[in-house]
Amino acid sequence: MTMTFRAISEDLPGPKFAGIFAEYWPSYRLWWAREGLTARPTYLECRRAIRKYMPEIADLWAELCELTGGGDSQARFLSFYCPPPYLSGCSQAIWPGDAPLMVRNYDYAPAAFDAVVLKTRWQGRGVIGLTDGLFGLVDGVNDAGLAVSLTFGGRRAVGEGFGVPLILRYVLQTCATVEEASAALTRIPCHMSYNVTLLDRDRRFVTAYLAPDRKPVITHAAVATNHQERVEWSSHARFTATVERERFLLQQLTLHPTTHDKFISAFLRPPLYSTAFGAGFGTLYTAAYRPREGLLELRWPYRRWSKSFDDFEEDSVSVAFPYDSDTGAAEPS
């Protein structure tokens, strides 16, 4: 199985964003409307939620809506308000060395992944990240030196709130420090349980446990996999080996002091690196974020690809993945 990752740079919303949205929209529309159009909030409900919880990017959302056709469905989708539920794997950790470094594996279904590294300067803020739904991000860094990444929180609960990729976009668009970002995460409702790790240029970091049915918890955890303070969905935990991955990372932090390069390389091997693509939880990339340098390095077992605010070439890279069709056949029940 081969996947092509694309790097796209466009300072202001324009034809590049519109073009790639048009390319992805048929598939995203099918996913978004799979339970019927009436299952999703109305345009007015979406606009009201954006204006209430993310007023700083309300105009940006409206601009992107117009850019992508101005339709009702596009606007509701781009709001990320009460989207269909979705699961991912993922592991992330803060390197224990002196320099700020956050490393993460993104484990997800290849067919549902944008595979786009997008560099923008919307509303005057430089942001680089891996997109989800093109407006949202699964991880990223901004030109103020703030990096952010997500993992699924391992809980079944679904409620009223935003899809977490838009929350990450909002944080990078409007925040410069971990303190500012933590405040944002505690007031914006999230529709499912997610763990969001934040790291800034001064090496301050937190992990926020977000949930739709209880208050957010801000912790000083340097590691996040696919559960929160304890395992609450045991079959999912076994299926994704969340406890084993957390234990391995904690050992890396406490028992085996190592260089930053060796720390990153650990994510390219089991138990962190997964080939369960047939089950929808294969490792699509390893990302190393250095917020002080505004640098993102993507790694695969035999390839590296770097992007920064100072050096961002619009190119692409094709990556071959080892497909393990015998590793699980269905989502956990």
The biggest beta sheet reads: 9 strands, mixed
Low-confidence stretches: 325-333
Number of helices: 9
Instruction: Find the count of extended strands (DSSP E, 2+ residues).
Output: 15
**Distance N to C terminus:** 27 Å
CATH class of the domain at 86-314: Alpha Beta
Tertiary shape: globular
Strand order of the largest sheet: 10-9-8-7-6-5-4-1-15
Radius of gyration: 18 Å
Whole-number mean pLDDT: 94
SSE ordering = EHHHHEEEEEEHHEEEEHHHEEEE
What percent strand? 25-35%
Descriptive keywords:
333 residues; alpha+beta; 6-stranded antiparallel β-sheet; Penicillin V Acylase, Chain A
Give me the secondary-structure topology:
Blueprint: E1 2-10, H1 15-32, H2 43-53, H3 58-67, H4 72-78, E2 91-94, E3 102-108, E4 116-120, E5 127-132, E6 136-142, E7 146-152, H5 164-174, H6 178-187, E8 194-200, E9 205-210, E10 217-219, E11 223-224, H7 234-240, H8 242-254, H9 260-266, E12 282-290, E13 295-300, E14 303-308, E15 316-320
Parallel strand pairs: 1-4
Antiparallel strand pairs: 1-15, 2-3, 2-11, 3-12, 4-5, 5-6, 6-7, 7-8, 8-9, 9-10, 12-13, 13-14
Helix pairs in contact: 5-6
